Amino acid sequence: MFSRKNYQKILLVILAVAISIISFLSIKTIASADELSTDTGVFLSQPHNTRDLGGVITTSGRHVKNNELVRSDSLNQTTANDAMVLRENHHVTNIIDFRSNAEVTVAPDKNLAWFFYQHQAISPQLSYLDGTHSIKSIVKKVRQGHQTGDQIMLDMYDYIADSQQSVTAYKTLFKTLLTNDNATLYHCTSGKDRTGVATALILTALGSDKQTIDLNYLESNSYRQIKVNNDLQRARKYTKSQRILDVIQDMESVKQPYLDEYFNELTSRYGGVTQYLHNQLGLTDQDIQQLQSKYLAA
């Protein structure tokens, strides 16, 4: 018969094997995610969510070229050196800004002399938005409201799906992508919602599947983690309410249901994302082929 000591040894061996298997599967999962959605952080002095889409794969096995498509958060603190990095290292010549008129007035992009700048506002009419995006202002507005953070964000994604502003802005984006011989940078304030949707549309046109698009979208949480933590810390100076802090956390984050809401709304209103690209944004089959030829590498 086995002694208690032998049983303990056997249990330790089983535990070690189990841990090894779990670690192996975790590594494989991470590797699979990286293979599906690989972009590269563009490290500037201030923006927290600036990324080169080079490396993101498509269902054909091709991938997005480097230094062609750059997504970002606000450029209102861009230094001259940042501008040089974007222009010289990433070949950016065109910038498209999806922020509202109020956001642009309060915090205009800086050091734009080297770029062709286009402002194409997408302005969700949500009660907490006032252009300043100050934590004190957001805390005050959330305290006065009764919506959950998730409902606020779902409303935003419905607006992005339904509004004529979005159609106009995204039409301009794709027209620029079709005609610009260099890299295009597009952005909003946090680089996660209006910019996340724009990226989903681009990757759909280029032939990426939904899983790849979702993974790229969710990466904003990693890029913005320090910023979100800092904002929550500042919010605690103005409130002790966990409800308010939870709402701010949701508003500062991306979640799968938010992007799913956008795609579901496109399906409900227009028949799907492909139909939206063709019938609302005016992209022809030839345009799609041109985009894929221009932005994809083997």
Automatic annotation (TrEMBL):
Higher taxonomy:
Bacteria, Bacillati, Bacillota, Bacilli, Lactobacillales
Q: Which organism is it from?
A: Companilactobacillus versmoldensis DSM 14857 = KCTC 3814
Which superkingdom does the taxonomy of this entry point to? Bacteria
- Provide any one GO MF term from the record: phosphoprotein phosphatase activity
Gene3D superfamilies for the chain: Protein tyrosine phosphatase superfamily
Q: Pfam families under this entry?
A: Y_phosphatase3
What's the protein called, per UniProt? Answer: Protein tyrosine serine phosphatase
* GO annotation, cellular component aspect: extracellular region
